[in-house]
Amino acid sequence: MSESFPRLSARTRRFTLGVPRGFTISPDGSRVVFLRTKSGTDPVTCLWELDTDTHVERLVVDPRTLHPDEEDLPPEERARRERSREAAGGVVAYATDTAVTRACFALSGTLYVADLASGRAHRLETPGPVIDPRVSPDGRLVAYVTGGALRVQDLGTREDRALAEPESETVTYGLAEFIAAEEMDRMRGYWWSPAGDALLVERADEAPVRVWHIADPANPDRTPAAQRYPAAGTPNAVTELFVLGLDGSRVAVPYDEEYLVTAAWDSHALSIVTMTRDQRTMRLFSVDPASGASTLVREDTDPAWVDVVSGVPAHLDDGSLVWVANGEGGHRLFVGDRAVTPPTLQVRAVLDVDHDSVLFSASGDPTEIQLWTWDGHSLLPVSTRSGVFSGRMAGGVGVLTEQSLEAEGVSTTVVRRDGMAVPIPSFAERPGLDLRVSIGRSGRRELATAVVLPSWHEQGSRRLPVLMDPYGGPHAQRVLNRRGAFLESQWFAEQGFAVIVADGRGTPGRGTAWERAVLNDLATPALEDQIDALQGVAEQYPDDLDLTRVAIRGWSFGGFLAALAVLRRPDVFHAAVAGAPVTDWRLYDTCYTERYLGHPDEQPDVYEKSSLSADAAKLERPLLLVHGLADDNVVAAHTLRLSSALLAAGRQHSVLPLSGVTHMTPQEVVAENLLLLQVDFLKKALG
């Protein structure tokens, strides 16, 4: 008997194991280094290399031959993986020199450097567990963080010394602070100079950040974990920058803004990007590494908020700045001072700059993410089929990943200079579901919507109970033209539901006005749009939806939206499963929350409008609250406070606490049974 979908989904980390990722192309395009597990159920990630001339793959590093014991990660690495939503183990991250001849990585806090030509990996002695090692551009040195100190080891002599050591237990050098990693997609805290003779290093001091305690009630003998969490309206970590020379020099790089967004150091400039606390101003500076003096290169402002886009700043060979900024209602690619994309093409990210060409992802239709290049003269489409694409580019060689509704999984192809396509196979498991998804527009606002019906359902034969399955919040999408986006939705459909997935206002891909419709109100537009989508789909499928039995489920923002739905619109929604919901926005982090709702001391009414406890007395429908007690992102206090308010109001509800589970729910048994329990709850709740 084959495995059930819930069990297989859990074992395969939602079918991500076995998929090639983390690509690095050598400067001459002759080799592609990448990460992949050996099978779709193997959680140990290995390092591989593809010869683009011979098409031969080679296993470079198998962690089991280097570190056969179970992973024992230092706390900082566990936190980094939680921030990056990393579900696998083994070599989950690596860094190479410029020539891509050496790669470094950490296994259970132990530092290794691999010679890519021979495949030999060497263990290096360090004074403590290693976080985020990075080889110098010339391959002579490796830098890493341990115990909050930034250290450098000479790979020839094995001399190991600290360039900066923390002055107190709240200080770290070379690590991204919580807000940078969680909300600005910056996972690093130091950058090598192109010559390999200095590093730009972040110093973060968490002393001002309030201490919260994450308890484990299932194990009362354990001391609660102390965590510094910057909740909305409270102090952030103090960040500073220094240029640290290998000769022992230390040059401060001062800036006035609250947030360090990112930095880059190439042959043209040492660049830093900063942002004000209210997130309405972003500044790009060029820094003199010798003096630390900064020159303002450009400033972007927005009355709502400025957007952080990955991959910039960067430079063409002639020194022209590559940047992404808002213009005429769209996210546009700028080269120098010139916008080279139209406002109707929403730029998602800059993926690579190869000499005079820019590879970037963008959306015309919000359900598609396509690849484009700017070659210095014109825009050229790289991907031509419908789907979701990403990629890398170097040495005239490209790596393209493709997902679509027509094909299962992720397809990866290396495109050589001569145009020949070389596939990199995926070892991912097949979900075994007969997908029946229709993507279109629905409702008055023409919301991007997916309708997922059971494979066995004959259209018009009977009305099915409805399950709304949204994320629904800003900065993320559910309705994309790829099969992987709808696997869980299809499984729920197979249990007898008509499933609707809709992206409302605030979600990306439809321009700045659409995204900024949630300013000062994260509740009303999100809820209105789910109702709009439901009514629109009901008009399209009048004989297939039973609007007297409508449920809604979601996780994180989707959990907030699910609870919101049954509290404020019980006339529409008849049951809800709210997983890890944000119920009080004062308890969520500064950067995300203040971007949309402002400072809670300045706009308390805005926070009240978007939070849930005041609505507790309105509950008249079945509500299941699910929360991991070890969640350090949306802490369990959100669910517990809402539950207390519901109890005080005399409102019946259910709470499922998950002992030892974080926001990711990576444990196989938990992930599997959560799906089964949700179905059971929803079927009983809807009768």
Automatic annotation (TrEMBL):
Residues 65-85 are annotated as: Disordered. Residues 488-687 form the Peptidase S9 prolyl oligopeptidase catalytic domain. GO terms for molecular function: dipeptidyl-peptidase activity; serine-type peptidase activity. This is S9 family peptidase. Residues 75-85 have a biased composition (Basic and acidic residues). InterPro entries: AB_hydrolase_fold (IPR029058), Peptidase_S9_cat (IPR001375), Peptidase_S9B_N (IPR002469), Serine_Prot_S9B/DPPIV (IPR050278), WD40 (IPR011659). GO terms for biological process: proteolysis. It comes from Nonomuraea aridisoli. Coiled coil: none annotated. It comes from the Bacteria.
